[in-house]
Amino acid sequence: MSIGLYIKNKRKRLNLTQEEVCLGICSIPYLSKVENNSITASKEILLLLCKKLKIPYEKLEKSKDPYIDELLITYFNAITNKNSESAIISYKQIIDQYFALNQDQKNIFLLNQLLDLTILRKDLYKANKLLIEIENNLDIIITKHSYHYYKNKAILLLKQNKIPASMELFELAVKNVEQYQPDGDFYYFFAIASSKMECYCRSIEMLNKAKAIYIEQLDLIKIMNCHILLGINYMLVKEMTLAKEYLNISLKEVLNQGDKKNEARILHNLGYLEYKEKNWNTAVSYLNRCLNIKGKNYSSINTIYLLYLIRYKHLGMEITKDIKMAYDMAIKSRNEEYIIKFKTLIINSENGFYSEDNLTFLLKKAIPFFNKNGDRDDYKFYLKMAATIFESKGFYKKAVYYYKLALEIGKEFNHEFN
């Protein structure tokens, strides 16, 4: 811990103002700079401050020992690189230095280490409790170690789907990284958050950084995860050739590893890519292969929907019974997004695409829901449906209104229902 922070913490515990502490010693701005480590106070000033705050000067001198910072960096890098032997050695050395810290700093130090381990073990409930404890003592956190706090909170918020707040904290972590080398997982989770915020180029940048670290560590599974997300991102920016390249690389990797879960994930995305390129039969082939692995259940409801959408809308198949079964599945799982999606298909199949029932459902249910929830592409999809129906009925002003709303989300869109 720095001398300045040590003095600041001691002053606050004694409930003293800067004005009270610096009286007869130095000016208030001078003390403020000392506490914020902007300047290094002379020994004479420090001795006077120690006397005022009842701090043994020798203890203050110990607080500036940088050795624990160096050990923390060694420990952090050992954990990142999964070097357990080095981690154990540096941890024991840290414990020796740890007892030279004041009690408040000891507590924060231990909480930070526990938070790292808890996130690693994916115990989000415990991680959130630890985070609250740390946030109750934010003023004690050493500035140079704030990277860990921002990183861990960003990952927790991402896992809770609080994407804008997560992105803000990832940015703060980057600004506070200083001498720490961010680990591959930091860049990978940053990439996921960026992609969810539709910052696809930033996501691709972060994925390439993560991939470079994983290659050094020879972590084949995480390299594969980067390839999958790179493929998805390139698809979303309409770089379909690159998207296919990365997804097919990923498919070969999972087949070599026998990883069925990720094989299904890649097959779904290849199916979606072919759907976007209007290669209906190829898309159906990939989606069926995905379902052969996952089965028709709650976890594969997104694949079932895309498959039925293609078979009904683009291949002209009569599958109303299958759609109703999938709709019941969505109801049982209380999945509002897919309840609406399958209900729309049911209305289309029973009453017709241009029916009043379909238009009413779109305006009252589908469009309001996807305006606030889910993927923006889905919102655009239903806006275009409403616009097409209004256009067919001769309500051109309303058609233009909904087309404009769709254009605001993305200027390039395909007319799915022409």
From TrEMBL:
Coiled coil: none annotated. GO terms for molecular function: DNA binding. It holds the Pfam family HTH_3. InterPro entries: Cro/C1-type_HTH (IPR001387), Lambda_DNA-bd_dom_sf (IPR010982), TPR-like_helical_dom_sf (IPR011990), TPR_rpt (IPR019734). Residues 7-60 form the HTH cro/C1-type domain. It comes from the Bacteria. Gene3D superfamilies: lambda repressor-like DNA-binding domains, Tetratricopeptide repeat domain. PROSITE patterns: HTH_CROC1 (PS50943). This is Tetratricopeptide repeat protein. It comes from Virgibacillus salarius.
